[in-house]
Structure formats: C-alpha cells, structure tokens
Predict the structure.
Amino acid sequence: MTDDTEDTTGVGSTPNDSPPENGPATESDPTGATETTDAILVGSVAGSGGKTAVALALARLAQDRGLDVGYAKPKGTRLRSRVGKTLDEDPMLARELLGNDDEVHEMEPVVYSPTFVEGAIEGREEPAVLQERVQESFATVAEGRDLVVIEGGDSLATGGAVGLSDPEVAELLDAQILLVADHDEPGDVDDVLAAAADAGDRLGGVLFNRIADADYETVAADLAPFLDGRGVSSLGVIPREPELAGVDVATLTDELGAETLTDTNADGLVRGFLVGAMGGDAALRHIRRRRDVAVITGGDRSDVLTTAIDAGGVSCLVLTGGHRPSGAILGKAETAGVPVLLVDTDTLTAVERAEDVVHDGRTRDAETVATMRELLTDHADVAAILDL
Amino acid sequence: MTDGGLFAPDRVAVVGATEREGSVGRAVTANLLADFDGEVVPVNPNRETVLGEPCVASVGDSGADLAIVAVPPAVAVETVREAGEHGIDDLVVLTAGFGETGSEGAAREQELREIAAEYDLTLVGPNSLGIASTPVGLNGTFGPSMPDSGSISFMSQSGAFVTAVIDWAFEQDIGFRHVVSLGNKTVVDETDLVADWGDDNGTDVIVGYLESVVDGEAFVETAREVTSDTPIVVIKSGRTEAGAGAAASHTGAIAGNERAYEVGLREAGVLRAGSAGELFDAARVLAGQPLPETDGVAVVTNAGGPGVMATDAVGDAESLSLADLSDETVDALGEALPAAANRFNPVDVIGDADVERFREALRVTLADDGVGACVVIAAPTATLSFEALAEAVVDVQRETELPIATCLMGGEQASASSETLSVAGVPTYFDPSRAVGSLDTLARYRAVQRRETDDPARFDVDHDRVHEILSRVRDRSDNRLGVESMGILDAYGVPTPDGEIVDDPERAATVAAGIDGPVVMKIVSPDILHKSDIGGVAVGVTDDEVADSYERLVTRARNYQPDATILGVQLQEAVDLDAGVETIVGVTRDPQFGPLVVFGLGGIFVETLEDTAASLAPVDEATARGMTEEIDAAPLLRGARGREPAALDAVVETIQRLSQLAADFPAILELDVNPLVAGPDGVTAIDLQLTVDPETLPDRADTSHGDDR
C-alpha cells in the first residue's frame, strides 16, 4: 500500500536529501536552535487520530536506527490537575519511553488550557513572547539530538489564537508536518485536502490511521494515488486495531477517583462500558457479546455482578452510588480475579466520566505505543517518514 | 469420598474446644459429648480439660480421624494444614470469615483450597454449621439438638435452615441419616455428597436446599446416575428475579439462569420442590412409601367435598390421573357399599361409614389393576374412629404394597392417629392437595427411574471448516458473527438457501443469475442488528434489479450508520415463508450447566409468549422430538388449519445437529438460527447469529477448508 510513496516530495521541497544517520538538516535554521536537528511535527486532520501513539512510535523507531531522539509538545492539551499544577501526561510518557530526562516544562512550554485561551483573548498573552518561549524550549530539547518528534495540537488550528497553530509551529521550528488522518467515509478526503493546504509547504505527507478492514482497500488502492495526484504523499495506511483503544484498569480507577475493593491485578484493559441495568439473563447476553468491558452498575445489583463475574471476559466492575456489595460477591470477584471499583457518583455520571477516559483516545500507555510501532513497521514507509 | 470417615469416625477432635458460655467451641464439644459413640478429643493449648475431657495442645496430637475446626480464620488455615500433615483427612471447618466476607477472606479461602488439594482432604465448609450422622450419634454442629434417626440425608447451603429443619422435624416425626451444612463449598460440594449418599445403603432419599450448584455439568452427570435408585429432592432457591438477586448477594453465586437450573435439574432426574413444605412432604413419602406401578389414583372418602378437592388435585398433578375402575371393581364396590354411596372413582363411602366399610372399600379398590396409588380422605364423624381408620390404612398398605397418602381431616382427632400413620411411613395431611401432591412425587420419581436416554447421535460434519469460520471472530472488535458465517450450518449439515455474500454489484448480478427466480438481498454488517428497520433487506429482487438494489442497500446502511463495518450484501434464494412454519433453534451456554439448546416457533411465540423448550446439549433423537412436542404451539407444526404438516423429522434432526455443534465447540456462547423455516419437504435456515468467545477457541494449524459461503 505504500508503493506509491517512494516520492516523498509532497508539496514544496523537502530539505532533507541525506539520511538522518549521515548528518541531518543542513539548511540554516531559522530557530537558531540547533543546526543538526531534524524535526517532524505530527498533526491531526480532524481531532483525535492517535497522534501520541504515532509520534512516540516514530521516535522509538528512529531510536532503533541509532538516532538520538527527543520529544516536544509545544502546546500541552491533555490536561490533568495535580496539586495545583496543570500537567500534560504525554511528555511524561515520552520521557519514560524514550529514556530521556528532559524537563517537562521544556518539552511542553505552553499549557494551552481554556484559561490560557481566555487570557489570550483578553490580551494578557503576547504571541511574540510565547513564540520565543517555544523556540527556546525546543532548542533545549533539540540540543545534541538528531531528531525531535513534535506532537501537534488537537487539530492543526489549535493554538492559532497566539500564533501557535501547527503550521505556525512547524514554520517556527523548521519542522515537516506528518498529517494523521482517519477515513470513515468518502467525504473525509476533503478534510485531508484542507489540512494539507493549511500545512502548505511544510507538509511532509499523510498517514492514514485506524482504517476499518472494509475501507482498507479503498484507502490504499484508490485514495492514496488520488492524493498523490493532488500533491499529497501518502506515507502509510494503518489498519484499525482494537487493541489501540482503551485504558488499563489502574488508569480508569485513577480517573474515576474510585476505591478498589479487591486485591486484584489492575493491568487489564478496558475498551468499552456496559451499563448493567438489565436482569441477570439479559446481562449475560450483553456482556458476552463484548470484549474487555467494564460493567457499570449499582452495588446493590447482585444479579448483574455475579453474572458479570461468571460470564468471563469482563475487565472490571464499577459500582456506583457508593453501595458496597456483599462480602460473598467481593470474595467471588477476588477469586475470579475481577477488580471491583467503587465510586460515589450515580451510574450516569460514572458512565460519562468513564467514557471520557476511554473514548478520548487516551492511548498513551506503553503498550499502545509498542503496538503502533509494529503497525507502522508493517503498514507505513517508516524510512520515508523519518526522512522528511 | 467419605469411606465411613466423615460420617462414621471413631475419634473426633474439636479444635477450639472451650468452656466459654455461648461459644461455638463449647456448643460443638457438648453436642458431641452428649451422643457420640466414639471418642471426643478437645484441642486447646491453653486448657487441661474441656467439659471434663482431657485436652491436647494441637490437632496433630489428637489421633483423630475427623477434625471439627472452630478457631479464628487465620488459625483455621494452619490447623487444616497441620491436620493434613498428620494424616487427618476429614475436616469440618465451622469458622466464618472466608470468601463470604470479601477480598481478604477470598484469598484465605483460596489458601484453604490449595491445602486441601495438597493433602487430598475431604473438607466441609468453611462457614458451615457442621455435620451430623445419626447412626453413630455424631452431632458435630453447633445447633441446639441432635436430629432423630431416619433414612433421609439432608444438605443445606444455609446453616440457619439446618437448625430450623432439625428442630421442626422433631414435631413432624421426620428423621435423618446424615445432615451437612455445606457452608462455602470450598472443597466438598453438592455433587460430592450426592455421589456419596447415592452409594450409601442407609440413605433412601437425598434432600437439599441449594442456592447454587458449583459445577452444573458434573452435578447433572452424577445425579443422573444416582437418581436411578435414590431419589433426590431439592429446593433451588432464587427462582424469581428478586430471589436470584438475594441468593447472589448471600452466596456470590450467579443469578438469573433459572432456565438452566430448571433444565439441568430435570435432566439430572432431580425432583424440584417449590417450598420447604413441599421439600419435606416429598422426602417423607419417598422415604416411607413404595413407588406406584401405574399413574392411576383412586380416591376413597367419606366426605364428598374433600373428595372433589382431591380429584381436582389429581387433575392438576404432573404425573397422576384419576384411575378408571374396572367393571369388576365397580360391581364389588356396589356389593360392599350402601346404595347411596358412589361406586365410581372418587369412591364415596358416605358419612355414616364405619372403619370396616372403609377397610373393605380400600381392599376392593386397591385390588383393581388400574389403581397405582390411593388417597384416603376422612372427615370426623360419630361412626368413625380415626385411630381405627389409621390402623386399617396401615394394614391395607402392608397387604397391597401400594402407596397410600391420607387426609384425616381435623385437629385433635387427627393428631391422635397421626403417630400410627407416620410410624408406618404413611403421610397424612389436612389438605387433600398435599396428600395428592405427595403421591405425585412418587409417580414423578417412578418416571425418572424408568426413563431411558440414548447416546446422542454423532453426525458426520466438517469440524475444521467451522473452526476456521469461528476463528474470524479474532479479527472483530466484538464477539459476534452473522450471516457471513452461514458456512457453519453447511458444515454441520443444516440446509441453507442457495446464495453468497458479495461485495460488488457486478458479482451480485452474476450470483443472482445463477439462482432460480427472484432473490432476497440483505446488508451484511456486524454493526447493524436490525437490518429490516433501516431498509437493509430487499425481497423478490429480479435479476435486472440486483445491481441497483445492491447500491441502494449499501447507501442506506451508510446513511443510517456511517461508522458501521459493511461486509457486503447477502444474496439468497427466496424461500417461501408461507409454505412453512418459522421456527427458531438457539443455543446458549450457561456458565454452570453448559450448552442449552432451545427450540420454539418464530415471531410472537418466542418473543411474546416465551413458548420454548430447552434441553442440555447434545440431545438424543427422543429428546429433540420431545422438544418439538413440548411447546404450546406444537399443533402448528403438525399442520393446523388445513396446512400441510411440517417435516418434523428434519426439524428434529436440525435440533440434534445444532446441539452437536454447541457441544463440539465450547467457544460458541450463543447461537441463533432464526428463522429455521420448516416446510412440508424439509427445513431451511435463513439467518444465523453467533456469539463466540475467542479465548476458548483453540488454535489449530489445519484450519483452511474451502469456501465459507
């Protein structure tokens, strides 16, 4: 499927003719940061597209080739409050996976929170100052490195309010943009072309991600050549991999602020939710049809709980309303190795929060990156991407 | 399992024996000292004696062959280990604080299970009220009293119910042989006890109160064998949704699979009681009375009204019918009874009957070959002594060896005679329906004893092809397979219409050209469950419309659910639904009892009326045929209202084949062939839905076997 991608010229000229091993970017660097560092900005065509997984997997693949690789995310977006400080988790994962000890505030100089945007609108943020901060931080991360993989914002436009949209950042840091795109229906191609236009001469190419089996051939055989014809290189088509959606039980517990009632292993994967509002019989049927689900129900629904434990394949039980189940049920869950989490909220609130956690595409754990690494190797032209 | 050990030990150690008032350790020690034929050894490192018996410091020093453990949970685990190390194989753990209390307890219980496995221990409990064995005077419970001796062995998942029953049984003149409070069933469970008591000559009836069965398939297999000569009567509580919830909360057992229990217990030959009253009515009559040779019941009464009530109860009974008395019997009754009496069944000896008229009427009636059992009903009159009647009934019962239940209706008068009857094992009740119910129990058990089952037929099938198709679930994000898997039915010899799943309009046209007549087209997508609701089905499509129809179906599906995975469009030969009856054959795998095959008629019969028959898979031919006859809508299959009857043999064979499929592939959690159209010339499966557990599916190298469509 990547047969058509030998030509990596894309739109405009690509400065890197030589492989990274032999001494990367030679062009004079407008950032004034470092002269020998390549930069790839992984941007997203329409919201979530598995950017983090792609960015980190690329970084790991580059490391495999002997490169010294850094990670930066100039605009932190996945925010999480921890004792008064707002942090993005992606840089921390990057540090862990890449084995770097860059300072998180260097990797993520701007925290692009709603409060920040409000401030920008009220004129409290100075774009020129912010741009300078981004450049300086990048210079620190890039120092002595062969390559820095930059993760973009939620969409290419994110950051525009302060002159830090992805194309602007790419320009600022002299990076080539790799667009990560979904494809669910024919009209999606318009979004790809629009994003390509936004990226302008910074565009390196597009990587299709999470492509359903039924659409795979269409994308690889028809869409990729079509885009090539429009000057947009297609650098790979990654099939939809169910493994890539989901969080582990420990993360879910954390995010829900739940109490764990069992002493069970919490590294199982949760990929979806099922609300146990039905009777035991119906619950069995519904649970069996799904894989790796968390069953959310009231602690007093002993029929659903026991059914879920016996049905097998359930990642965990989330009990709402603060009702603890009977000791016998907890004992059974323990024996079966099914974690039981207790939250104080009602079922609806718990479902909303849990869905946020999973469907947010929070695919930043190490396992996901490892899977993405294999997928990229099999389905994308990694050499061409790293060569951007 | 017990080898005399658990129920006939020589020397019993009580670990945690003490004199502290109100403690379990004291209660058990006192109960044992009161009645036990063998030696009792208290174990307590802090005492010299307990209740006058010298103590030993540890269970290892006791030299016992049964240890009853009543020490705190953490110590209990170590005690069991020590017992195992010292060759004490039989244990009863009374201590609570295991899996029933939550996470920490469950870990402790797991430890107990591992120790028991390591030393091959027979361990009752934990969280048990204890065990009792009347032949050796063993009361190893902390309940208040030793039960009377008898031939009923009783197990209960509720400890409280054990003490309640023992106490109540005194008043009811019901005696027991062995009594076990099962507790958490960590090691010894209902299946072990059924096997043990089935081999025990002294046990005539096995009675149980169960909230769950640990291993349904093992239970069915064992109980099926045992019930061929020892009846088993069980209350399985949690029948209703609310009850199931309560049971789940109590024991952590799965709730909501009432249908599976119903089918599993029935196939095991276990008689199910609906209430505590029914449970012991059944136990008493099974322990005291012979089984009837025929289903015919005679009612002999001195009271018209109660006679009618009894007759109605016979009509309601599952396995009884009102005996049709022979001309000879009727003539003989005519000679024995006054003219105003009723010589036909129910036989009314009328209000002025004395005991001799009763006795004569009973003799004559029970001599009739059509009479398998008899209900004797009497209201108190000036001419009749209940005491004398009770003796007459006992005499006649001994002479004829036919089962009799009595209804000596009254208060004080009746209770005076009840002892005579209960000593002879003849049940007596105030209520005629209970008397009839107890005889019905005998008839039901006789049917269990006489039933014959064949080994299910093994059809020649393509196992590998099914394995290959099921394996595709691994590529799916959920566990469902649909019509694209119809090849499974082909592989198991279930007829399907001509057709194919295609993914482009040209191929659709080619396939349609190869099929006679118009075709049916359906969108194929695991994400679209109700195809017809979104216009995803087209019927009567002629060859020249096929390509357009293809595009239309795909467009509709895309519009309706843009993110749905669309595998293609299925083209099928049109099946004339009007010429046949739509039936449904389904399979669900019950977590306890394994695969259940379900049969019913399509449409409202299954969805609204829930008119289905179910059996454990695999089924033999007779069972499959029975399923087609059991449903209320069975007459429709036989050709009601002038229709041609459906090919029943083909339906029966399909049920057998699908039951074999379910048994062959444990990975199939659910399967629905809906509809299976049963016409006069055979059956055709139109649609298929499956839920497959990818974890259970074995990996195999030899998977690819041709096309799947």
